[in-house]
């Protein structure tokens, strides 16, 4: 395996990839195979969650990729599901070649759970039942992931947020935005913001983790400060309504758009504390995005205080019907520099003292729901963006790949279909 530079080291460079969301039933892990063949210089891989999916077998699963057993609820269920996912040769090869830094999102237990609150229509609809299920999911996760003893679960509780350093070049704060969060506001889903979405009581991280994050960032003297977390931090209004027509805002309540005060606290802190070169890496939404992180998203001229790179999924789908509507809403979100949901893949990051280069690597899809049906498909660069040290915000570098295999109808974006 590989190890981090020693204390006090000043490495000249770092190369890593980040990945997320690998529903076994949505296709082959061609992205891992391509990574293993094409990216053997990577120092490590960050996995941002949804390593397994809890769902039972789906009739429209990619052939040979159907889940074994029913929906995961017991410890035996979760152990079996991890074993099935680990049976994939491409993923095993990636684990053999690269150290993994991991954190979970929701599907390691149950879709869209929030702390002790189950999702609507859950198989475990009470707090007591969810906590039993959470304990089972966390135990199986710990047993199957490269984690230290400090993350050993205690029943339904597991300390997963932690820090890593790459000498004085880069520091990594890896978050858990699922175990301590308040419930999704406004009925969850894609909604206009209600008062609760703006409440100071809404939290993604819980107060203890929020203090831990701010303390570490305030004390860091590293060139780049990377925050690894799950759901999109930047604001995005998914409404695709022309300005001269009526239509309300449309925000995803499972993202930080449902936790506005918590986001404002974090982004305001980055600015006030003078955190050096903050960059957020994110998964969850099965598509690639680049955002300038604004001190005030309601003011188009507001100061940029950081950068967010959102990476596509390994396999989990982004239905083609949503591509055009999300693209159409870009005009109302000028801080968003890039969006593409037409491919699966991984995201490569190359850092030195002067720049942070992000390259979105895409594996082609051949179905309307964006599944990967070719096991040995290569990964090709789709777009690259660079952050220059001392200048928050991303600049495009080189051309952007265009085109999608999807040419069917469109439908309004629905986060319930991105899970």
From TrEMBL:
SUPFAM superfamilies: Metallo-dependent phosphatases (SSF56300). CDD domains: MPP_PhoD. Residues 16-357 form the PhoD-like phosphatase metallophosphatase domain. It comes from the Bacteria. Residues 368-419 are annotated as: Disordered. This is Phosphodiesterase/alkaline phosphatase D. It comes from uncultured Rubrobacteraceae bacterium.
């Amino acid at each position: 395996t590989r190890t981090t530079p020693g204390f006090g080291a000043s490495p000249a460079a770092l190369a890593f990839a980040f990945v997320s969301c690998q529903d076994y039933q949505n296709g082959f892990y061609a992205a891992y195979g391509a990574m293993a063949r094409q990216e053997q210089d990577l120092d490590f891989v960050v996995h941002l969650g949804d390593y397994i999916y809890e769902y039972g077998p789906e009739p429209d699963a990619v052939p040979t990729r159907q889940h074994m057993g029913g929906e995961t609820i017991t410890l035996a269920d979760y152990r079996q599901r991890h074993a099935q996912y680990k049976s994939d040769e491409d993923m095993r090869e990636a684990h053999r070649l690269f150290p993994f830094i991991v954190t979970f999102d929701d599907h390691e237990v149950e879709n869209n759970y929030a702390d002790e609150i189950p999702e609507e229509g859950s198989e475990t609809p009470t707090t007591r039942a969810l906590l039993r299920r959470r304990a089972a999911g966390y135990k199986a996760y710990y047993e199957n992931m490269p984690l230290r003893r400090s993350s050993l679960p205690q029943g339904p509780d597991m300390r997963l947020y932690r820090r890593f350093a790459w000498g004085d070049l880069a520091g990594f704060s890896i978050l858990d935005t699922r175990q301590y969060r308040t419930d999704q506001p406004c009925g969850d889903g894609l909604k206009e913001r209600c008062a609760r979405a703006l409440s100071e009581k809404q939290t993604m991280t819980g107060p203890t983790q929020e203090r831990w994050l701010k303390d570490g960032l305030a004390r860091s003297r590293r060139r780049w400060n990377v925050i690894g977390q799950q759901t999109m931090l930047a604001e995005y209004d998914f409404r695709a309504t022309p300005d001269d027509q009526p239509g309300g805002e449309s925000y995803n309540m499972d993202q930080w758009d449902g936790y506005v005060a918590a986001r404002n606290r974090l982004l305001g802190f980055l600015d006030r504390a003078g955190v050096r070169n903050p960059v957020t890496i994110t998964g969850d939404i099965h598509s690639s995005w680049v955002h300038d992180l604004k001190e005030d998203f309601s003011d188009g001229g507001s100061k940029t205080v950081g950068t967010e790179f959102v990476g596509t999924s390994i396999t989990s789908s982004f239905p083609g019907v949503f591509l055009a509507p999300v693209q159409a809403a870009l005009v109302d979100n000028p801080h968003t520099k890039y969006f593409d949901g037409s491919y699966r893949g991984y995201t490569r990051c190359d850092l030195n003292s002067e720049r942070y280069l992000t390259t979105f690597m895409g594996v082609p899809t051949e179905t309307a729901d964006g599944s990967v049906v070719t096991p040995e498909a290569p990964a090709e660069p789709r777009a690259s963006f660079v952050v220059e040290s001392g200048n928050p915000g991303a600049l495009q570098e080189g051309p952007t790949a265009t085109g999608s295999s999807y040419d069917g109808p469109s439908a309004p974006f629905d986060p319930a279909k991105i899970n």
